[in-house]
């Protein structure tokens, strides 16, 4: 991954959200800007929003499950794990709120959510997609699958 380009995009897409949410917003804006050129981008935009919402829900469920497992085993790092679980839950709720706001936005209002039309071009959008895909659990464990 080209971390320099990711950092440049994040700098251009200033906002109070976390890094992943900023990249998601930039990608959604790019897809929205180009829907007139390619109608399939409307589907892509909806797919990404649904997939990110699902991923956030799964992350929350895993955090709750790991917290329940820790409660039953009473590990020595219990306080640290609960704090981490709380952080995961807070971040997940923040992302869900962001995605809900995207879902509730009517197509005619997409232009009000745009950051800057010059922020992301095709190459940057491809880089964002690759970067966000690399953050998914399957991509992170792909070497393990190949080894097995």
TrEMBL record:
GO biological process, one term: heart morphogenesis
Name of the encoding gene: Nipbl_2
Gene Ontology CC terms, in alphabetical order: Scc2-Scc4 cohesin loading complex
Top-rank taxon, per record: Eukaryota
Single GO molecular function: cohesin loader activity
Stretches the record annotates as Disordered: 63-83
InterPro entries listed in its UniProt record: Scc2/Nipped-B (IPR033031)
Name of this protein: NIPBL protein
